[in-house]
Amino acid sequence: MPGERIRIALQKSGRMADDSLNLLKNCGLHMARSREELLCRIKELPIDVLLVRDDDIPNFVSSGICDLGIVGENVYEEMRLGSEGFAATILERLGFSQCRLAIAVPDGGKIGSVEALAGATVATTYPNLFQAFLRRHGIAATTLEMTGSVEVAPRLKIADAVCDIVASGATLAANNLREMTTVLASEALLIRSGKALPPEKEAVINRLLARMRGALRAEDSKYIMLHADKDKLPAIIKLLPGAESPTILPLQGSADKFAVHAVCRESVFWETMEQLQAAGASSILVLPIEKMMG
Question: Taking 80 as the threshold, does the pLDDT of residue 266 lie above it?
Fold first, then answer.
């Protein structure tokens, strides 16, 4: 029934949109989508996806138009700070689409510290977050609210500094700006409406959340297999990143050589493999994990 379907708001385009749709795909959820469609239906679970602008998502969820939403923490916090009666809450931190809201100043300019912002004019598209930052530090500064191209404000002599989203820092460098301090470290959030939902919808949300957690754990985890002599096992097991108790099996025809199988819940780098090899491991194999649960 339509009333039992969950509605989730996603960003229509951009990196956050791609990452969000990829998460749904890794959860075994698929939808037919064209660029013109705003409302799409998930085939495998009673979920409808509403594709909208990122700054519409928090309010859509807060007002109950959507039950869930995936949005950047920067957008969520800006809306939360600026809206009375805001009712959307964080259900899960998703870890992808990471960036930071930072204050940047002209390279070689007069502002060299946070305290030096006193009396300055700062251009930003995040006035609520920036003003909260000023209050935390007890600084009085002027906020120049802009809707885009914030980084050009110092060059146009209309602001002394900027408070803007930074990913790689390339845009700042291109405008002769240097990052001075971070206001907010941001990542994708799964948010939900504060309104009470019927048990049928809660059940769907719980299923979706379990799949998301499993998909995210699988993405960060690796399955490691290796061989090692018995006396080398304690040192090798200590090197396995984020592993629970590994499975250790004797190799056929050998009393002192064993196979070690482990799920590592942290990243496995080349340096990790080199350390394992130096500790006495051989035939080291690292495999991706497609799905995890429990």
Answer: no
Question: 42: which residues sit within 8 A by CB, 6+ positions away?
Answer: 24, 29, 30, 31, 48, 49
Alpha carbon distance 171, 148 (integer Å):
13
Q: Which residues contact 8 (CB under 8 A, 6 or more apart)?
A: 47, 48, 49, 50, 66, 67, 68, 69, 70
pTM summary value = 0.82
221-288 CATH, one of 3.40.50.970, 1.10.10.10, 3.30.70.120, 1.10.10.60: 3.30.70.120
Phi, psi of 91 (to 5 degrees): -95, -40
* Domain with residues 99-186, CATH architecture: 3-Layer(aba) Sandwich (3.40)
Domains 2-96+188-218 and 99-186 share a fold: yes
How far is C-alpha 19 from the chain's CA centre? 9
Phi, psi of 105 (to 5 degrees): -130, 160
Mean pLDDT (the chain, rounded): 90
Tell me the C-alpha distance between 4 and 223, whole Å. Answer: 38
